[in-house]
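Hi support team,

I submitted a single chain yesterday and got back a structure, but I'm not sure I'm reading the token output correctly. Could someone confirm the output below corresponds to the sequence I sent? I've pasted both exactly as they appear in my results page.

Thanks,
R.
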Amino acid sequence: MKKALVIALMTAGFASSPVSAANHSASANSELVLLIQQLQAEVRQLRGEIETQQYRLQNLEKDQLDRYRDVDRRLSALILQQGDSPISAPSDAVASDSPSSVTGVTDTSVTEQPITDQQIGQAVVDQPVVAQQPVQPEPVPVPTVDDKTAYQNAFGLVRERKFDEAIAAFQEFIRFYPESDNLANAYYWIGEVKLAQQELEAAQLAFESVVSQFPAHRKRPDALYKLGVVKDRRGDATGQALAFQMLLDEYPTSSAAGLARNYKPR
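Hi R., thanks for writing in. Yes, this is the structure output for that exact sequence:
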């Protein structure tokens, strides 16, 4: 009796074991499928966010390019307009009918007397001797404002269309503030104004200064683009290609790189 009961229990245990294993396997598979579905949903969500960010980035890049083109176009227009404007006569010019400007008028109230050689010699002898004073060197001017104010003053002249004065102010800035953070900007804006004035050699020198002297400055990609433009206008196709290639290699996502890709050589 006991032996038969033990055999029955063992048989029941062996019979239920495959069913339990099957149930466990099915549960694990269900959890795995659910996990895969969740991961796929997260991937889809991330992909959607990436596409949204890419769209926003493309819009931002387009806006930057549009702003860059607009600033460049406005600056060129302002400088060309300044060059075409007539030069007005100074308000303090002497009138043509003033006594000092009328020819053929003599002062009849004075009778001229001839002067003899003896009188001339006596005048030379009687003239007192004045000791010559040593020539003193002119004092070197000292800047009266800080570099940021000086830079803003120079850039303000560009806004006011006083381009020749702006060039002089930027050159003075370079002389007085060689350690300023705005030094590269000063060179760059000299190049911009010179380019708009069609002084291509001076513009090239200014942009080359930015490219060579300020390798980590934010204006370097813009200077590379403008350098390529100048070289193209000077007929240097090889130089233009090299400048643009350097720009695309070093700053592929910059606004200037976008302009270089769309640039059509002359």
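A quick pointer for reading it: The first helix runs from residue 2 to 84. Let us know if anything else looks off.

Best,
Support desk
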